[in-house]
Amino acid sequence: MFGMYGKKGVIQPGADGDIVIYDPNGHTSIGLNKTHHMNMDYSAYEGFEIDGHVDTVLSRGKVIIDDNQYLGAKGDGKYFKRGLSQYLI
Question: What domains are defined for the chain?
Fold first, then answer.
C-alpha cells in the first residue's frame, strides 16, 4: 500500500522484521507521558481507554520496548525510501 511491500509489512528473509507482541486481554490508557514513545507533544487519542496492551516490540531482532519502557537508542531506526504503491503499478 505504501510502496514498501517486501521491505515492510511482511515477515520474510530480507524484510525489516518489526514484531509487536500484543495482549488482547490487557488494557491501555493512552497518554503521551505513559504510552507514547515518539517525538511529538500531542495525540488525537490522548485520554482514550482501549482494550489490549502492547507488551514488547522488536525491531530487526532487538527488543526496543518492554513493559512500557523504551530500550532503543539513537540511531536504531532505519529510513526506507518508499516506492510506488503496488496497487498503482
Answer: 18-70 (2.30.40.10)
